[in-house]
Amino acid sequence: MSAMIVAAWLPCSAQTADQAWLQYRGPGGRWLIPLKVRALGSGLLESSAAQELQRGISKLSSASVLWRGSALYGETIVGTADEVRHAFPDLPVPRDLKPDGYWLYWSGSAGDLKDSGVATHLVVAGGDDRGVLYGAFALLRQIAAGPGIYGVNVKEQPAMPIRWVDQWDNPDGSITRGYGGRSIFFEGGNVREDLTQVREYARLLASVGINGCNINNVNAAPELLDADHLKQIARVADAMRPWGVRLAMSVALVSPEKLGGLKTADPLDPAVKAWWAAKADEIYKLIPDFAGFTVKADSEGEVGPASYGRSPADAANLLAAALAPHGGVVLYRAFVYNNHLDWRDPKADRARAACDIFHPLDGKFLSNVIVQTKEGPIDFQAREPVSPLFAGLRETNQAMELQVTQEYLGQQKHLVYIAPMWKQVLDFDLRADDRATPVKEILEGKSFHRPLGGMVGVACVGRDRLGSPMAMANLYAFGRLAWDPDLTPEQIADEWIRQTIGLDPVVVSTVEKMLMQSWPAYEHYTGFLGTQTLTDITGSHYGPNIEASERNGWGQWHFDDREGIGMDRTVATGTGYVGQYPAQVAKMYESLETTPDNLLLFFHHVPYTYKLHSGETVIQYVYDSHYKGAEEAAELGTEWATLKGHVDPALYDDVKARLEYQAGHAIAWRDAIVQYFLKQSGIPDAKGRAGHYPGRLEVENARLTGYSVVDVTPWEDASGGKAVSCAVAKGCSAEWTWDGAAGRFDVTVEYFDLQGGAAKFAFEVNGNEAARWTADGTFPSRRPHGDNSVRYTVSGVELKPGDVLRVDGTPDGNDPAAVDYVEMTSAQMVEQVRQ
Ligand code: GCW
């Protein structure tokens, strides 16, 4: 009889968010596992697997009730399939375990628990070393997430071989589009001394089956390839190696010139080829399991083959040839487009670029090249169609690039669970050759019989991981979907919540509901009908700035004017982009009737009065979806509030504050979009909301002392386009006399929290201070606009006609204590709006 754990239900123990999902707190109910762990081999990854199991099991068991049997025969065994076969010839070890795959097997029966004569073995067998590690994590996940492992007999293989994360870290320690602090890899131009966080990151990545990590920005700094930096980077590879995460690097194609002193970086030049071959040799001497290069070229200012009159295939093959003798791969990004497009040219279309450039090169890439394509044709928008290039490359390996870091999705300040979007993309059937070719099967190599393929997630994890505990669900989901794209977002959420937040069924169902609501809510209060982003695309990509997309070379146009909105990409009358899809999909998008409403404006230009399939006009949808989205954002907070006392208190407070902010920012978004399109279209909201804000007192109409009225740019980011700003060091104030009904109100002050200072605010009624706060958040931008528009609410303020309301603002540094409005909301008013 083995030493077994029979765990009883224990209440949620305290947990810290920064431990992410490997907390190994106890599961509910009864569960069993042999306590002793034994590795059959001595390989590095097998040792990691055994250690992780030992650590996990003892942590899990320490929170459980131990049931000690009569003898201690049982063991949890880890080993490769060959080792297990050798040690236990009678076990039915599967013959077809592939690299990275694993088999979990419970040998014995429940009777063994009572029968001291029979040994029970729990076996973790890997198709290779890495498979052993993944099996160990899978086993722990199965216990930690609840179902337990008694009687387990599971064989799993990853769907695709390439499962990487990309980091956009820069040598100076910053992370491009990173929202979780500074780099865990670099600081001050060099690799950091302390790589503890790298080890922990690799461990997290391994736990969800990620096997590669590209550690530097695709806008690559050439100096990272010099001898000194490569030695430093070898330390990073050493730190990740025990977790089976192979290191990859982004490289600048211009490196032979910049670093090697060559006169050219022409991919076909023999000296250039020799330079890269020697560089690859140098890298592999230091990092024998180096994974490969990622390349961004001819894109957003990065020099590429076009500068030398060569093609992306020439450039990719140059690097692939250098890496091939060592077993490395090249991930060549299809994110190549001209960012100086002429917006007046009706045929110009950034969405076309990837297919126009890469489709003709199909079949011309070496076998260790993988073309890495963003999931949509533009750039990680809240809603895009699937890139047609996935169906356009039949003789080329392909990987799909997704963004885990929420660049266009609220930058981790907003809760947005992206797995449902990724899942839609993976399941989308491109109908190549009129047969079923869902994106996931293309990436798996099934559709076009490609040996290499996969998924790459731009993670941008920093020293504060993703900067928000809930955002970690996205990193988890990315790994799980790359392993098995048939998992559902709900299943993944469920697993993540159980391991991270708690096993209480109410917690699981509430958080799962919140996660699943979050992407639709974000889409509702930001964009609509496939318009692409309405964020400030020439700035932070965060707050609203509708016209930032227009009349410039970046090609993210939505072409709104007084009559209508949308980009005509049809073959008949537009840019012809639709023709890049296989026939059946092209037919669907070519016609207004068959284009789904949620992508209408991506493919067609229509008047505001155009009727959607739902029967609503486009303009009414703009109003309705934004009011709905803001309500949905508020609901996230209401739902979370029901979990008070059921989750870790620190996590509770942290998430609560974030959701309150999000609900406020969703209102700022709603109002910006709604007032912009109300003005642009001149068509009123059939429900009377747009342009009418009961209870709102504009600050520009207040009695001002010290404050001066300023125009906010873009105008839609402030109520009525105006705010007040204070340049008086001792402070300014705005006063109103309340002439509304008497009652109890929540008073919201909408203000701008700028970078470079922490302004102070106070709210008073008849000279009595009701609240005081400091604008010390970290929002983008040093000028007042939608990026840093924040709402502060004072609850339960009693008001009667004639009361004097006053906001005091004291500037600090660059922050002028700018205010937009105050707004009174009573329970009665909320009811009226709902009706
Ligand atoms: O989304 C855009 C980002 C750039 C990024 C680029 C890319 C690293 O705004 O910051 O560059 O995509 O994917 O190359």
Helix share, percent: 25-40%
Strand segment count: 30
As a percent range, the share of strand residues is 15-25%
Task: Give the uncertain stretches in residue-range form.
Answer: 1-17, 65-72, 114-118
Report the bound ligands by name, code or SMILES: 4-O-methyl-beta-D-glucopyranuronic acid
Main β sheet profile:
8 strands, parallel, barrel
Radius of gyration over C-alpha positions, nearest whole angstrom: 29 Å
* Principal-axes shape call: globular
**How much is the average pLDDT?**
93
Instruction: Note the total helix count.
Output: 20
The structural class is alpha/beta
Report how far apart the termini are: 66 Å
How are strands sequenced across the largest beta sheet? 8-11-12-13-14-15-16-17
Describe the model:
The chain has 835 residues and is α/β, with parallel strands linked by helices. Helix content is 30%, strand content 18%. It contains 20 helices and 30 strands. The strands form eight sheets. The chain has an eight-stranded parallel beta barrel. Helix 7 packs across helix 8 (312-323). 56% of the residues are buried. Residues 1-17, 65-72 and 114-118 have low confidence and may be disordered. Bound molecules: 4-O-methyl-beta-D-glucopyranuronic acid. 4-O-methyl-beta-D-glucopyranuronic acid is lined by residues 168, 176-177, 217-219, 296, 300, 335, 379-380, 407.
